[in-house]
Write a structure and sequence with these properties.
Pfam families: PMP22_Claudin. This is Lens intrinsic membrane protein 2.2. Its main location: membrane. The protein is of the alpha+beta class and 109 residues long. The protein has two domains: 33 residues, no CATH class; 51 residues. The chain contains three helices and four strands. The protein has a four-stranded antiparallel sheet with strand order 1-2-3-4, with no helix packed on it.
């Protein structure tokens, strides 16, 4: 029998995965307001006056943040897949436990 909170944990894991993907892909990590427009910067590119360009200078802080965000997305995806397969294959509490561990690891990243 599955633990009683497995369904809620899987739903929260799916929501976390969607939010992680959106936050990793967007360009709104840092915003600066100038006289009439906003400039913003994300993990992958920066936008000035609605013209976006990829980062050309490698800064260790941004590289480490990219790596941890990608590790977080991958471990969250693994946790969601393990959580969903526990429901399709019947009573697999070991998979639910492993999915929980993957989701906690994703939060730590």
């Amino acid at each position: 029998m599955l633990p009683p909170l497995a369904g809620g944990g899987t739903v929260c894991g799916v929501a976390a995965l969607v939010l992680l993907i959106v936050s990793t892909a967007t360009d709104f990590w840092i915003q600066h307001r100038h006289i009439e427009n906003w400039d913003n910067q994300g993990l992958w590119r920066y936008c000035i006056s609605h013209r976006c360009r990829p980062h050309t200078i490698a800064v260790a802080f941004w590289d480490a943040t990219r790596a941890f965000m990608l590790l977080s997305v991958l471990s969250c995806f693994a946790g969601v897949v393990l959580g969903l397969t526990a429901f399709t294959n019947g009573t697999k509490s070991r998979r639910v436990r492993t999915a929980g561990i993957a989701l906690i690891l994703s939060g730590r990243f």
